[in-house]
Write a structure and sequence with these properties.
With 555 residues, this protein is an alpha+beta fold. The protein has 3 domains: 3-168, no CATH class; 180-366, C8orf32 fold, CATH 3.10.620; 391-552, no CATH class. 31% of the residues lie in helices and 16% in strands. It has 18 helices and 17 strands. A 6-stranded antiparallel β-sheet has the order 13-12-11-10-17-14. A 4-stranded antiparallel β-sheet has the order 2-6-7-3, sandwiched between helices.
């Protein structure tokens, strides 16, 4: 087994400790699994009935999620992230940080970001070092050193060792390219009913991989790809996964999807015949279990462990009765499978959330779209904190009818946006211009009446869609650079200044430069714009708010 290199840690400590007026304290190395050794938190902004990240933790979460995403996309060769925490109210007292539970933030990343953290070795965890004032205890910065799994770490000279905090961009770029196949799966089923989408995702995952028994049994396997979603989407029949890989892949496909009903997918941990991870799927306020791992067995493929409920379900667990199945001359005997939630999982999510519906999901119940969510007054979304950078923009977007909440009480600012969604938001912000010539191009595959049909027709007349077929079509995810290019085009492709970032390709340079000159963006820090990061709902409404309301533009 390759050894890990802890290069530069001592040098960093000496440098930080030497800063005038500051002292350095190094946090304990955190070796954590899901809900193990770390404080409990699992969903950005909090989960129903569970722990909620406070506003400071949410800011740290957002920054780290962006950094994790840049590593996952192959943009970074270091997994040490220094965050400026000046003014956040984090202090050091009694040798401990006050105002921030970094363990809660870490677990939130693990539970909520199956793609962004595929490179992260949770068995090694992270270390945190912080600079603080010896006079006031105020913490001015925190550096998180996040361990890289052997599969994605830079190999040291000689090939026998690897660097624990140095991802290899060549490896991560290849993985990111593989995971992009997930978008093609979602696009393929975008016009299916919600039930058919979920079923198709299950079938796709089970067709792509088998259970990796050797990795599950140990056998010297270091933590890495068998526990991640990459192997599900790499089109390589030789790569397989354990239960974590199945569950993460299913959650990721659900996270990428737009559903007519109120559907969310979560990772849960516990035991069945041994330690296990599966999915909990919330459908219109009811909970159902989806065990993709055991759905990939002969009897599991009959559907008894997918979107199942249980009349005996409690906050602690449930038992699924799988009936006898007769298939021609062969039969599958009846069997019983019991699931118990890990104690911390049960405490975190809460009884109402984890208690399954009394019966399996009826496909007919998803045959009709759920009613449109009712827009709520500004500040009333459960997942938008007044201190979030996008909070004011969300209020504006709802009041200006640019978009509304995903549900009546959630905006889901971290949800990735498609080209169709962003062009529709932009069209609405422009006042929903209409003309008989605004007809979506045939290649877009949209029928009249589709929510984005007129918006794409409008965009096409302005010459915005030239690169869209090559970028995956309306249903593909839209990057930050592509979104800014659309906004720039809507404003007449005005000339920009000399502002530039080190990572913006020439194709988007003018649009981004114009946006900087007009106070619409200032990048993601470190002289970078991160053009290839997928644009989420919180980011796009912020860009649009600044573009259309001069008073809120960056100075």
């Amino acid at each position: 087994m390759m050894k890990r290199f802890f290069a530069l840690l001592l040098a960093l400590a000496l440098i930080l400790a030497a800063l005038p007026g500051t002292a350095l304290a190094a946090g304990d190395g955190l070796r954590t699994g899901y809900f193990t050794d770390a404080a409990d938190a699992a969903y950005a902004g909090g989960t129903p009935g569970g722990h909620t990240l406070n506003s400071v933790e949410q800011k740290i979460y957002n920054s780290l999620k962006a950094s994790f995403g840049r590593v996952a996309a192959g943009e970074l060769s270091s997994s040490e992230f220094k965050l400026d925490t000046t003014g956040l109210g984090i202090t050091r007292s009694g040798g401990r940080l006050q105002g921030l539970d970094s363990g809660a933030v870490l677990t939130a990343l693990l539970m909520d970001c199956p793609y962004e953290q595929y490179w992260f070795d949770k068995t090694e965890g992270w270390q945190a070092a912080y600079s603080y004032s010896s006079a006031t205890g105020a913490v001015s910065s925190i550096t998180f050193r996040c361990a890289v799994s052997q599969d994605y770490a830079k190999t040291a000279p000689g090939g026998e060792n690897y660097y624990l905090y140095q991802p290899d961009p060549a490896k991560t770029r290849a993985a990111a390219a593989a995971v992009r196949n997930a978008q093609a799966v979602v696009e393929q089923h975008k016009n299916s009913s919600d039930y058919d989408k979920l079923s198709a995702y299950r079938d796709y995952i089970c067709d792509q991989v088998d259970y990796h028994k050797a990795a599950a049994q140990g056998n010297g396997y270091p933590f890495g790809d068998p526990w991640q979603l990459v192997s599900v989407f790499d089109n390589d029949p030789a790569t397989n996964v354990v239960c974590e890989g199945y569950a993460k892949a299913f959650k990721y496909l659900c996270d990428l999807s737009s559903f007519s009903n109120d559907i969310g997918c979560y990772l849960v941990t516990g035991t069945t015949t041994g330690p296990h991870m599966w999915n909990l799927v919330r459908v219109n306020g009811q909970s159902y279990m989806a065990d993709l791992t055991n759905s990939d067995s002969e009897w599991g493929r009959l559907g008894d462990l997918f979107l199942a409920g249980a009349a005996n379900a409690t906050a602690d667990g449930f038992t699924i009765q799988c009936p006898r199945h007769d298939l021609g001359s062969y039969h599958y005997p009846a069997t019983t499978r019991s699931y118990a939630y890990q104690e911390e999982t049960a405490a975190y999510y809460g009884g109402q959330f984890l208690t399954l519906a009394p019966a399996r999901l009826d496909p007919a119940s998803l045959s009709k779209p759920a009613p449109e969510p009712v827009p709520v007054p500004g500040g009333a979304f459960d997942d938008v904190d007044p201190g979030d950078f996008f909070a004011q923009a969300v209020d504006w977007a709802v009041s200006a009818k640019v978009t509304r909440g995903v549900t009546g009480t959630t905006f889901v600012p971290g949800r990735s946006c498609t080209h169709a969604e962003i062009l529709t938001f932009l069209w609405r912000a422009k006042g929903e211009p209409r003309d008989s010539s605004y007809i979506a191009p045939v290649w877009a595959g949209l029928e009249p009446g589709h929510y984005a049909y007129t918006a794409l027709g409008w965009a096409d007349t302005l010459g915005m869609l030239g690169g869209l077929p090559a970028n995956g079509g309306p249903g593909a995810f839209c990057t930050r650079a592509q979104a800014m290019d659309y906004i720039w085009a809507a404003f007449g492709r005005q000339a920009g200044g000399s502002a530039s970032f080190s990572d913006v390709p020439g194709r988007y340079a003018q649009a981004v430069s114009w946006a900087v000159d007009n106070g619409i963006t200032n990048g993601t820090g470190g002289g970078r714009f991160s053009p290839d990061l997928v644009c989420d709902r919180g980011t796009i409404v912020t860009f649009l708010h600044r573009a259309f309301v001069e008073e809120v533009r960056l100075k």
